[in-house]
UniProtKB/TrEMBL annotation:
Organism classification: Eukaryota, Metazoa, Chordata, Craniata, Vertebrata
One Gene Ontology MF term: protein-cysteine S-palmitoyltransferase activity
Listed transmembrane segments: 20-39, 55-73, 177-197, 209-233
Species for this entry: Canis lupus dingo
Lineage: superkingdom: Eukaryota
Entry protein name: Palmitoyltransferase
InterPro entries assigned: Palmitoyltrfase_DHHC, PFA4/ZDH16/20/ERF2-like
Stretches assigned to the Palmitoyltransferase DHHC domain: 129-247
Gene (name only): ZDHHC15
Domain writeup: The DHHC domain is required for palmitoyltransferase activity.
Amino acid sequence: MRRGWKMALSGGLRCCRRLLSWVPVLVIVLVVLWSYYAYVFELCLVTVLSPAEKVIYLIFYHAIFVFFTWTYWKSIFTLPQQPNQKFHLSYSDKERYENEERPEVQKQMLVDMAKKLPVYTRTGSGAVRFCDRCHLIKPDRCHHCSVCAMCVLKMDHHCPWVNNCIGFSNYKFFLQFLAYSVLYCLYIATTVFNYFIKYWRGELPSVRSKFHVLFLLFVACMFFVSLVILFGYHCWLVSRNKTTLEAFCTPVFTSGPEKNGFNLGFIKNIQQVFGDNKKFWLIPIGSSPGDGHSFPMRSMNESQNPLLANEEPWEDNEDENRDIGRGRSKLTVGSL
C-alpha cells in the first residue's frame, strides 16, 4: 500500500515538473504574441499615418517574424538524437558488467568493447566514457542530460527557454533562432524609435497606443542586449567547433586533453554545423553533416593538411608539439 502511494506521488511530481518546464516557453510565447499585436496593430495600423510606410514596415516585419517563429518551433520540437543501438551494451555484456565487482576488470571490459566503436574521447582519468544510466558507451561529444534523462549526441546544453536539449539534431536551428531573435528585436527597436521620440516630445496624441509603443521599444532593447551577447558567444563556439560543455571542460582524447581537438579551421568549423550547401544556411532545414556519432578531428586533419598544425596553439610550444604529435599517432592508429 505504502509502495503504491510512493509510486503515485513520484508520478505526480514528475508530471508537475514536466508542466512547470513549459513555463519559460509560455512566457516567451506570450511576449511574442503581445509584440505582434503592439507592432502590427498599435504601431503600424494606428500610429503610423503614411500608407507606404505602413506597407513597408509590415512586409519586412512579417518576413522576419516568419523565420523567427519557424526557427523557435524547430528548436523546441526537434527531438534530441540519441546514440544508436551499437553503442548500447548487449544483454549478456550488461549482465557480465554488472555482476563484475572489480572496478579494474569493469574498466578493461569497456576498453575491449570500445575497440569496436569509433570512440576516441575519454574521461579525465583516461577511462572509456560509459553512461551507467543508459547502459551505453558514449560516442564522442555525447553527454547525459539529467533533465531529459537520456544521452544526447553532441550535447551543447539544456535550454529552459525552448524546454529542450540542444545538440546535434537541433543546434543549427538554435543558432538560427538566436540570429533571427536578434534581428527581430533590432528591427522593432529601429522602426519604433522614431515614434518613441514623437510620443516623448508630445508630437503625437496621448492615446492607448503610446503605452504599447514605449514598452515595445524597452522590451526590444532589453532582449536585444541579452540575445546579442548569447549569439556572439555561440558564434565564437562555432568558429572553434566547440560545444558549451567543451568550452567549460576540455575534451580528453586517448592522447590526453586537447582544447582544439575538433577545430578544423574557420570555414570547415562552420560547415560542421550548417553543412556544405550555403543555400540552406539561413533556412531551418537539417543540413549538418554526419550522423552525430563520430566527428573529424584536428589531429587526423593535420596529417592531410600540415598547415593546421600551426593554427591556434592552446598550450606552451613545447607542450603543444608533444601533445599534437602524441595525439596524432594514437588517434590515427585508433581510427585504423
